[in-house]
Design a protein that fits this description.
The chain has 7 helices and 7 strands. By secondary structure, it is an alpha/beta fold. The chain is globular.
């Protein structure tokens, strides 16, 4: 299964979206099941956000997305909500790695000017360059993702990637 092309609706956030904003650490005391936690996605930062998320939405953010603690549940709750990609100006290093390991596509691009609800298309062109089409009139270049990382994302994350190659015993 290929992750790209990926169509979605922009759900716009700002800079410095902390992992505790994505999912409050108090919630993981109840469960770590992403399908249960998805109803709390961004509850403290954007009350009611989880109720408006549609499968296929794309989170769009500014600088330093996923800063704060390195809790993996801040990635899995996004996936549990049906969001397959986050496009941001920059990511915290730990969030970026957790995202890729869990199969959440994390793409770096200039997100300035992308409005809430805008249709997005994340794709690769004939040369393999990663591009973000914003509505029907703007194409933004994205920072490249290494071929290995794209393979890992297409497999669903690190564990499925290793299992498919026989390099990991379940």
């Amino acid at each position: 299964m290929s992750l790209l092309p990926l169509h979605g609706r922009a759900r716009v956030l700002g800079d410095d979206v902390n992992t505790d904003y994505i999912i409050s650490s108090r919630r993981k005391k109840e469960t770590i099941d992403p399908l249960q936690l998805r109803r709390y996605l961004l509850e403290d930062a954007v009350p009611g956000f989880a109720d408006t998320v549609r499968c296929g939405d794309v989170l769009v953010a500014g600088h330093n997305f996923g800063c704060g603690s390195a809790m993996e549940v801040a990635v899995t709750v996004v996936l549990g909500a049906g969001i397959r990609a986050v496009v941001a100006k920059s990511f915290s290093r730990t969030y970026l790695r957790n995202a890729m390991n869990n199969g959440l596509c994390a793409v770096t691009a200039d997100t300035s000017g992308i409005a809430e609800g805008t249709p997005l298309l994340l794709r690769r062109d004939e040369a393999g360059t990663l591009l973000l089409d914003v509505a029907e009139d703007t194409t933004l270049p994205c920072d490249p993702i290494a071929p290995f990382m794209l393979e890992m994302l297409n497999a669903g994350g690190l564990i499925p990637y290793l299992r498919a190659r026989g390099d990991f015993s379940p």
